[in-house]
Amino acid sequence: MAFPATRLRRLRQTGLLRDMVRETELSPRHLVLPMFVQLGTDERTPVESMPGVERLSISHAVEEAGEAAALGIPAVLLFGVPAEKDAQASGAYDDEGVVQLAVRAIKEAHPELVVMTDVCLCAYTTHGHCGVVREDGTVDNDVSLELLAKTAISHAAAGADAVAPSDMMDGRVGALRGQLDAEGHRETPIVAYSAKFASAFYGPFREAAGSAPAFGDRRTYQMDPANSDEAVREALLDVEEGADVVMVKPALPYLDVVRRVKEATGVPVAAYNVSGEYSMIKAAAAAGYLDERAAVMEALISIRRAGADIVITYDAKNAARWLAE
Ligand code: PBG
Question: Residue 205 Cα, ligand 1 centroid: separation in angstroms?
Answer without folding.
Answer: 6
